[in-house]
Each structure stands twice: as C-alpha cells, then as structure tokens.
C-alpha cells in the first residue's frame, strides 16, 4: 500500500489520514518541518494545558516498546508520574522542561536525549513562552505509567541551575 | 551541567562533543535541519556503503531499549539481519528502503514508521539516489542483532509494488 507524500493539508487532516492508515508501513506524510503529525489533543487530566499526542507504535505481546510524538503548547506539562519500565525522551523541536524528583529542572531543546530510569517520578512539558515537541519511547514491560500529583507553579517556575 | 546550543560547527566536532558529553541530559546541539548528529562511520562489514551511527541511548540492566540515529548515504544498506527483541524504525529524512524476508521492498520517507517483529529477517538502507536518516529503536531483551547474508543487487534493485 502506497501513499504519495506531497500533500498540502492541515494537521487535523493529517491526523485523520494517519488514523485511517494502519497499514504497512505506517505512513505519516508531512510537508512541514515537523517529522510526525501533531495528533489529537489529550483530554485526560494527567496533563495541564494543551498537549497533543500522535501514537506512533503501540506495544504488543512481542515488543513492549511504545512510541508517541507529543506536542506541548507553551506552559503545558504533564503531572508528576513514573514508568515502571523506564522512558526515553528525544527532543525534536521547541524548548521544553524536564525534572526528576529531587533534582533541578533542566531545559530540553532539539537533539537532547533523556533516559529516565524505571520508577523515578518526573514531569516534562513546554517552556512558558515556547512550545515543545518530543518523541517518547516508553518501556511498558513492567506495567503502565503511574500518575501522581500536579506540578505546582513553584515547581514549574523553578530556576535552572 | 549546561551547554549552549548555538554552535556553528561541523559534524565531526559535534560527534566529539556528544561523545564527551555523557551528562544529564545528553546534549546533541544542532544548528542544522537535522535533529541528531551524524555520528561516526560504521566500519564493520554488516553494512555496505557509507553508513553513520550516532548512539543516542545504550541499553542497561534497567531498560533494554537501544536508540541510535543512523544515516545511510545513497546506495548504502545493511546486510540481512534480525533482532530477537524486535525493532522500530522512525524515518526522519531522505528516501530509504525497507524489506522483510518474503515481502516486497517498501520506500520510506520522513514520518514513516516501521515495526519489525522479533526474529524476522529484514534489511534497510538508502535509495540509490538519495540518502536516508532513521532513528532505530531496538529491543535488546532477547539478545543482540543476528547478522545474515548480504543484500544482493537484485534484491536491492527489486521493484516497489
């Protein structure tokens, strides 16, 4: 199955195309600087602000790795949470924040890589002024993400050492 | 530890910087359209042509996921091989080929995603005229990559249905 790649269409249409295109390989055609579609806005309460998710790979019984493209609008972020199998973040655009419990907040930009160990509480999101795009690679072998409390404004605004 | 991100330097220097920067987070500063550095040329005989690897995440005892940025020059490709834990390919630039044993070759472009099951022989590489860049996410829990025979010119040049 083939799709041509030179569409001139909007993100909502791309999301619909991607969702209807569960073929081999999975196509995410783009004519923008972005690599993957923005996907759908996340509506659960584990996030604050506008956050979009394009699921790229779902885990299955043969490979427990989950991959998603996550786009945070300025000021948007996750709640504190941890992954029993650990998580890798690949920053692909914008300016983001990442913080592990008990450690200072760090700034993430395109090309930065985070390897968060299993069971370590952390949060991530966009900076206050600039959005942030990341590829999240989650090892689900020990169970799903465990969600914790919201990130306070004091935590979100904490200085970067 | 912080590094400023607006370098005006070459890829070899970036590779050296990245290698000397095993800090938290791992920084891959870029002032190009590429997301991650090209890395070092692979010199083992599991590849044909010029292929470059920037290791982004190494597997460890807590998380067996390996992530690498792989750049194939035109015509370059892997040998046939398989991964006992499976592999995910995220195409980020250029034009590439991917083929699983017994299936037709497919073309990969920016935004395409491949999920290759465990133990399925396959090869990937660049098209003859255009290079190809991919992020490879490999599940190493069942052991390392198993390398097989070279891709013949007939296989490499096989038509895309």
TrEMBL record, chains A, B:
<feature type="domain" description="Cupin type-2">
    <location>
        <begin position="70"/>
        <end position="130"/>
    </location>
</feature>
<dbReference type="Pfam" id="PF07883">
    <property type="entry name" value="Cupin_2"/>
</dbReference>
<dbReference type="InterPro" id="IPR014710">
    <property type="entry name" value="RmlC-like_jellyroll"/>
</dbReference>
<dbReference type="InterPro" id="IPR047263">
    <property type="entry name" value="HNL-like_cupin"/>
</dbReference>
<dbReference type="InterPro" id="IPR011051">
    <property type="entry name" value="RmlC_Cupin_sf"/>
</dbReference>
<dbReference type="InterPro" id="IPR013096">
    <property type="entry name" value="Cupin_2"/>
</dbReference>
<protein>
    <submittedName>
        <fullName>Cupin domain-containing protein</fullName>
    </submittedName>
</protein>
């Amino acid at each position: 199955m083939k799709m041509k790649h030179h569409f001139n269409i909007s993100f909502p249409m791309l999301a619909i195309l991607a969702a209807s295109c569960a073929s081999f390989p999975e196509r995410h055609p783009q004519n923008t600087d972005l690599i993957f579609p923005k996907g759908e806005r996340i509506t659960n309460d584990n996030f604050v602000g506008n956050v979009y998710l394009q699921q790229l790979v779902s885990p299955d019984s043969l490979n427990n790795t989950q991959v998603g493209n996550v786009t945070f609008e300025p000021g948007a972020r996750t709640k504190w949470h941890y992954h029993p199998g650990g998580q890798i973040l690949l920053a692909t655009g914008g300016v983001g924040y990442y913080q592990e419990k008990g450690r200072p907040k760090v700034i993430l930009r395109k090309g930065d890589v985070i390897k968060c160990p299993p069971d370590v509480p952390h949060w991530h999101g966009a900076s206050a002024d600039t959005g942030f795009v990341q590829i999240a690679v989650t090892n689900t072998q020990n169970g799903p993400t465990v969600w914790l409390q919201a990130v306070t404004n004091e935590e979100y605004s904490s200085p970067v050492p």
